[in-house]
Amino acid sequence: MLVAPGSPDIVWRVSVPLHFAVKTRLVGLLEELGEGAALPPERTLAKEFGVSRWTMRQAIRELIADGRLRARQGQGTFVATPKLIQPLALVSYTEALRAQGQQPGRELVAFEEIEADELLSEQLGITVGDPVYRLERVLLADGQPIGLETTYMSVARFPTLRDVLKPEGSLYRCLTDELGVRFGEGEELVETVIATPREADLLKATQSLPMLLLHRTSRDTDGRPIEAVRSLYRGDRVGFRATLRP
């Protein structure tokens, strides 16, 4: 029950779902247990909290989706490490991850040439049908998949990309160090989506897990398009931060 500020005679009655109240109490327990600790069995927790196992299960599922807990098949549920916070900026994924004490990595899924459709031709400043690199890689943090990144670039502008890029290496570092590209500006759109079965499999996740989808286009200091990128991130592992100025 809440009292409206400045109005002592007005009372707001707020009904809080039981599983949400249990979830709030569990957060306190996780802080006591510490990172990496095993969560007590669901049955034990339900008894201690005085709720049904269904209610406890619902609260635990939401904490898993929030990234506060991590379920390991056949082992149990554990207090998760804090989310990786990535800046919304034109910086290398490698540098951003290392700054947080994590070891970055990448697994190559596909590196092929396709024909530009209308959207890619607009994003990359080329003609429909022109050849485009399609580079798809799973992004890793300490060996665990956290994202799936697909980058599109004009073959005509970067004809030697296949020769100089190491599939497990930083694309931005390759572009700047090997090809002399200087990033100028970019645009990014962030939305929530549901992963496809293929994407969930590559990210070792379930389709019920929240995902963050980023669409980015970047240009060099002369305003020429460099890339169009589609990045899908596990919502339980990654968050994003932006600096806002008036």
From TrEMBL:
Protein name as annotated: GntR family transcriptional regulator
The organism's taxonomic lineage, starting at the top: Bacteria, Bacillati, Actinomycetota, Actinomycetes, Propionibacteriales
Protein's UniProt keywords contain Repeat: no
Database matches in InterPro entries: Bact_HTH_transcr_reg, Chorismate_lyase_/UTRA_dom_sf, Tscrpt_reg_HTH_GntR, UTRA, WH-like_DNA-bd_sf, WH_DNA-bd_sf
Keywords annotated in UniProt: DNA-binding, Transcription, Transcription regulation
Domain of life: Bacteria
Species of origin: Kribbella ginsengisoli
Domain named HTH gntR-type: residues: 14-82
